Amino acid sequence: MSDENLGSVQYGRPSQVPFGSLTGGAPQQHQVRHRQLNNPAGTAASAAAAAGVPAASSSRPRATSDYGSIRASALHQARLRIESDVDCVSYAPDVTVEGTERQRLVDNSGEWYFESQHAVSGEELLSAKFESLDYDTCENSLWAAEDQSRTVWDLRRIELCRWLVHLLIGVVTGAIAFFIDVCIEQLAKVKYRYMKSMLDRCIFHDCLIYALLLWIAFNFIFVLIASCLTVFGEPVAAGSGIPQIKCFLNGIQVPRVVRLRTLVCKVLGVLFSVVGGLAVGKEGPMIHSGSVVGAGLSQGRAASFKFDLGIFEYFRTDAEKRDFVSGGAAAGVAAAFGAPVGGVLFALEEGASFWNQGLTWRIFFSSMTSSFTLAFLLGFYRGIPNDLSNPGLISFGKFDKLDYDLLHLAIFACMGVVGGLSGALFNTLNEHLTKFRHRYVTSKLGQLTEAVLVASITAVTSFVLIYTVRSCQPLGSDQMEYPVQMYCPDGKFSSMAALLFQTPEAAVRSLLHDPVGTYSVTGLIAFCLPYLLIATWTYGVMVPSGLFIPSLLIGAAWGRGVGIGLNLLFPTHFTDPGKFALIGAAAQLGGIVRMTISLSVILIEATGNVLFGLPIMVVLMVAKWVGDYFGTGIYDMHIELASVPLLPWEPPSRSAAVSAQAVMSSPVTCLYRQERVSRIVEILRAEPHNGFPVVSGDLGPGTFGTFEGLVTRNQLICLLDMRLFDDGDPNFHLANPVSLSDFRRVYPRFPSVRQLQLSEADLMKSVDLGRYMNPAPYMVLHTCSLARIFRLFRGLGLRHLVVIDHRNQVVGLVTRKDLARFRATHTGDLKELQFTG
């Protein structure tokens, strides 16, 4: 093969995208500067019009950090300045997005919401900084050799290891939940004991201001610790983590989301956030924690500590890790609510994008093990070793009577409407606060200040509510550990303090089970409204925070108020306000997160009463319908604010008429089967793309060679790092055997091309890509519809899809970002979003 054929990388000139016919606007022009390698004069793109090939004239130049198209202004800032020699490659400061340089870029972002300007400008853009995971199997010759060498016992051993890992996931997740629960309980006892003592003393000595300062100090210190763990420790540990895990399971590579450091900051941060009095819960972070456990245990090593047990090596792929992360998320739900079935359904409905029957059983096993481990440890902790009646961090307690009739069901449906409206209000306010936060609260000092400010305002608001709402109840009507008398007569306590002088989980149980007369309607309204505003502000602060418990508490408060009002109007028919508190809690939570199936089962399992399942299902459906009319759920909203190219369940409407040639990226960077090392290094340094078609033959009009296979960036870097330079020697692979284990050994932190140590002699050698490329990846004709391509990506977890013509010539490449930019409007039309760098 001649030297000319060893460097067959083709770049096209800027082309126009005639997509205006689809969107109703004018065609968009993407100006992209490419270096002409071995094609200085007539390019494939410029020859397309003369040849009548539609692909080149209706496709976009391929130039993103991962793949897909990017806006011209962003490309101009990220342009490459490549010198003539391979070893003299200079880059613009903001272009390198691989290896250690990519890590530096991400670390400077501060949190997982990388894009802030477009999130608040009203312009709908997608971030080009998010890369994809590859869930497709590379069926190359190495994979075939490994598959053929496996015996029946090898397959059984792998399957047994899968079950073993899921068992470990359940045990470790349950143990983490136990640790969080015990630490919160002990720290809360210390906090509320000192505060009760101070309040009782200051009532008689007129020094309530000191009691308020003590409350503020407690909240300030605990929240400051939690915020420091996230701001300086691991920013991605902030929030509940559910949006990030949902993106990971969808195929988005969210940096550091499943790292050990993230787990430590998440666990420690959430317990200080809850004890710090914030309107947060520990249930959401448990889902994230379980996911990190699943990702870590399945790899059999801790990359952060360079510690490798050498086990579970087969599971070091994106597809295998995804399944274990799903099991960890389900185990987190089971530990949080004592709902193993609900955990499986949560992973299916809200998390996992890819599913199979075998995975269902293993995830259920993880959930069951997690719930059992937590109940077992709590039984020992409370001195009742054989007691397994506490399977979750939160239990709604035992309901003696949850009867209902048709009138009740109608009222519950109306409460679902209220929950949908209040949930939509919550999400709208939080969206505006998040945009404001991304624009103005960007420094670490500002993030710390906001966190402690929220903690202080929460303490002041709680104190004012206790001071102003004079609702006194006899002692014994509430099982709280530290009753506060305030200005109540002897033998009575403040019912408002009963809600605020305990953790949010305990407050929910009080609203569900306290006897009639414990709370007044005015007191519940006075509590509900400010707590709703505080919870809206809190979600998004740089602390680990869950949303489930604050939502349940808000809904239980106004739901119990509805029950009290009905009891006053119809004292013989509506005697139990607790059931209305339960319905209100379900309505509020459903209106915020918009979950139906999994949330129904979670609440049913938490109440322990399946007979009340129908009202819960009805109210959740109504709340979702009403809330969806005004916008998306809270998790989807935060994903959109982060501009993540998430693929929804179904393709956008009216996408069947859009062909692959209008979606694909082109020109395409291609390689020949026998490629010179210097050319591969130059391409890897110059191109941030992650998939390269392998072709043969000469260029055609608007095409880039005959398609033979696909090789990924990580594969190329590993080949160079292992120096598998055969120079066309047919016996090279016999003398230098290589297997998939050599590639799994460096997963997922593949080295950067800048870390390769190659000599001048190495650069002059060549590599046979035939053994390592995927010879049969998924590909489509350029006439294939967008809807069909979307289903292939969504169902198979693809990262790249090669587009060919009827002669098997490569004409383009479709990636996740090419699909994610097409969205349906509220009128059902198809619109195209743009990318920002």
Structure commentary:
- The structure is a single chain.
- The chain is mainly α and 837 residues long.
- It folds into three domains: 163-382, Clc chloride channel (Orthogonal Bundle); 406-642, Clc chloride channel, CATH 1.10.3080; 655-835, CBS-domain (Roll), CATH 3.10.580.10.
- The strands form ten sheets. The chain has a three-stranded mixed β-sheet. Strands 17-18-19 form a three-stranded mixed β-sheet.
- α12 runs antiparallel to α13 (283-297).
- Residues 41-65 have a biased composition (Low complexity).
- It comes from Macrostomum lignano.
- This is Chloride channel protein.
- The chain crosses the membrane at residues 163-187, 208-232, 324-347, 359-381, 402-426, 446-469, 519-541, 547-570, 582-604, 610-627.
Helix content: 40-55%
Low-pLDDT stretches: 1-111, 113-123
The name CATH uses for the topology of the largest domain is Clc chloride channel
Category by helix and strand content: mainly alpha
* Number of DSSP E strands: 22
Strand content: 5-15%
Rounded to the nearest angstrom, the distance between the terminal CA atoms is 39 Å
The total of helices stands at: 33
